[in-house]
Amino acid sequence: MDKLINDFSFGLFFWQFIILLVVVFVLGKFAWKPIVNALEAREEGIADALAAAENAKREMANLKADNEKLLAEARTERDALIKEAREIKEQMIADAKAEGEAQGEKMIAQAKAAIQSEKAAAVVELKSQVSSISIEIAEKLLKEQLADKDSQTKLVEKMLDDVKLN
Fold it and tell me: Which class for 146: exposed (0-12), middle (13-18), buried (19 or more C-beta within 10 A)?
């Protein structure tokens, strides 16, 4: 270091200083501006990319919230549709049961009516048969009792006595 201080020359220092100023001027004129512009452009690009990333992040959060909202609405709608379908099913089953019971009661009523009409017809036929059998029995009895002349006379006299008494 002593040697540098001892060998110091102002002329060389002056020319080196001038060359340094020229180099700084030339670099400032031709190199520093493009380098600084490139750095500023890169800084702006990075800032824009960060802003775009932040916007994309916000958009993704919004989309995620919208998706969650849509999913919740879809679940609610699905649950409502399932509930409505169950209610419709239960209503259809109740309607089918009621219709089945009504048809069963109608069939029972028709069967009872048919039984009643068959019973009435059987009673009428039975009465008809009983009356025809009674007539046949009476006819046979009368034929038997009125087979001889004495019996006929007694019967006529008895009937005449009954008529007179009334």
Answer: middle
Summarised one tens digit per residue, pLDDT across range 78-105 is: 999 999 999 999 999 999 999 999 999 9
Do residues 51 and 59 touch, judged by C-beta distance below 8 A? no
Tokens 């020359």 belong to residue: 9
* Tokens representing residue 149 in the block: 């002349």
Paired tokens of 78: 């699905």
For the segment 128-149, what is each residue's pLDDT rounded down to a tens digit? Answer: 888 888 888 877 777 776 677 7
All residues at 6 or more sequence positions from 164 whose CB lies less than 8 Å from its CB, including other chains: none
Handedness of CA 110, 113, 119, 120 (dihedral sign): negative
Please tell me the distance from the alpha carbon of residue 144 to that of residue 136, in angstroms, as a whole number.
Answer: 12
The pTM of this model reads 0.41
Q: Which amino acid is at 107?
A: M
